[in-house]
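Standup notes, structure subgroup. Blocker cleared on the BES input:
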Amino acid sequence: MKTQFYYLFLLFAYLVLHSCKENSETATGDSKNTIVNDIHSNAKPDQAVVKHLSLELTADFEIKKLSGTATYDIEVKEGADTIILDTKDLDIHQVTLDGKNTPFTLGKDDKWLGQALSIPVSHDSKKLIIAYSTRPTSEALQWLVPSQTAGKQHPYLFTQGEAILTRTWIPIQDSPGIRMTYDAKITVPKDLMAVMSATNPQQKNKDGVYTFQMDQPIPSYLIALAIGDLEFKSIDKRTGVYAEPGMLNKATDEFADVEKMVSTAESLYGPYQWERYDVIVLPPSFPFGGMENPRLTFATPTIIAGDKSLTSLIAHELAHSWSGNLVTNATWNDFWLNEGFTDYFERRIIEALYDKSYSDMLATLGLQDLKAELKDLSPEDTHLFLNLAGRNPDDGMTSIAYEKGALFLTMLEQKAGREKFDAFLKKYFADHKFQSMTTEKFLTYLDENLIKPNHLYVNVDAWVYKPGLPDTIPTFNADRFMKVDTQVTFFVNGRKASKLETKNWSTHEWLHFIKALPDSLAEADMVDLDNSFGFTASNNSELKDAWFKLAINQGYGLKILPEIRSFLVNVGRRKYLTPLYTALTEKGMYKEAKSIFDEAKPNYHSISANSIQAILEKTAPKI
Ligand code: BES
Ligand code: ZN
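Run returned:
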């Protein structure tokens, strides 16, 4: 009886799996782009899908709204009767389907996913037009007043789509597994210029109307817009920089190696598929270091250190032109396919362009971060393949995806040998360009194209589906950091800072130095270090951030509180803010943290503000 039941169960399981698979292979009508179920989108692309988006929007800085129309070329599968788009915090005014005004419904509002916008369609429906406007609270958008910009004269707007915020400024099928081409016509105040992740203007025009085109199909999170007092300066034929006028020369000097980065990347993994590669330097409130919007990387001004020492971040965003933008994580559970590959690729670009000791330092710092973060994460969140059901996909933005992901690839490279591994990656990008990728599909491809043909033994399961790190992980050459460690030991044993051997140290050696210092230093030691090396007043944001964190943990924070406050008020990059606010609250400085946040909040993008708010709420003293 039991066995019969077992066989019945097997048959049932087979049928379920089989029907899912069939469904997924044929769903888009595009055999190459497998449709997978995305728990972070309400869209049902197996029924109806957007193929092209045409935006016509006007930016009104007075009321902090974008308004206008989104026109979609849609494809409706046989038998389907509804198209579903994602929306969040939008006002939908009117929906027109093939020229006819059409009723629509907005579903229940979910904290993370927003509301499903359902529109009745039929198999021959072609063109959908939605008239809508954003709200001042739409999370993807940050509207800056002139005082929050470099030039202080003009307002500024930028968007941040990843992971699921594009739905807060465009009604859209907001899943990384769905790709579309787009064009846009954006009207802005006459003295401003608009740029997008598309073909871009290089000059302001008189009427304030800008048009854009993105002919390569991209996922929605890569649609991006920035509006401000912008100027363009070219670096080379296909590379250049957009920034506010006062920043432009400095930024162009800093990014002088960008063209070389592009050609280096091409020589590793195949042709650059997006024609131009430009970088826009945003105001300091940009919540990330960089965002890989195609054709136009969005970057924080905090990487402009004056000595090119932080430009590996540009190599990272550029690398996404392959890993992420060309071959895209199908869902946010597969995020490591975007970031782990990109971290690995970033270091390969740095190694090829500069030297191996530099990329080894980057990898070692990354590994240190990973080991520290592993202690704080729940075991399930340390798998490469994540389960983010019911959560904000931002929760997956940990060093697991980045560093464990990059380590996994480094391990594969070491097992297969560099030549074979590079050939494998090059072919992987060529075979899957403009497609989305699931972890499972990648692992099958890996097995068939690298592991089996070369008879490698790799414990893929432990790396991808198990917590923590496997017993054996790749190691990096540590010569440069060992020298730094020696100086740390001297200092801890009483040698004066001015007597340490620090000649020719790069930013990364300094970073390692600060991070290797113990929390137990005396105040006089902190003063000695600061007097000798000028960390508090440094122009290098990474050093400043690391130093402030050490200072707070060590009890020196109150002494340099004005400088810490000024850094936290002026910079909105979440990676810097989170550790500093956390350290403040952990060191009994909740009151100071709260007061700084109250002052800084108007400067922060909602992404950063929400993260800091959560830290403060969690640590608020009970009254
Ligand atoms: N794509 C990410 C930024 C991102 C990830 C935004 C997830 C929203 C959700 C970008 O490429 C990135 O990784 N930026 C890093 C810099 C990089 C050098 C590690 C950052 O902003 O710190
Ligand atoms: Zn990245």
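Discussed briefly. The chain has four domains: 36-228, 230-321, 328-464, 480-619.
Next: hand off to the docking folks.
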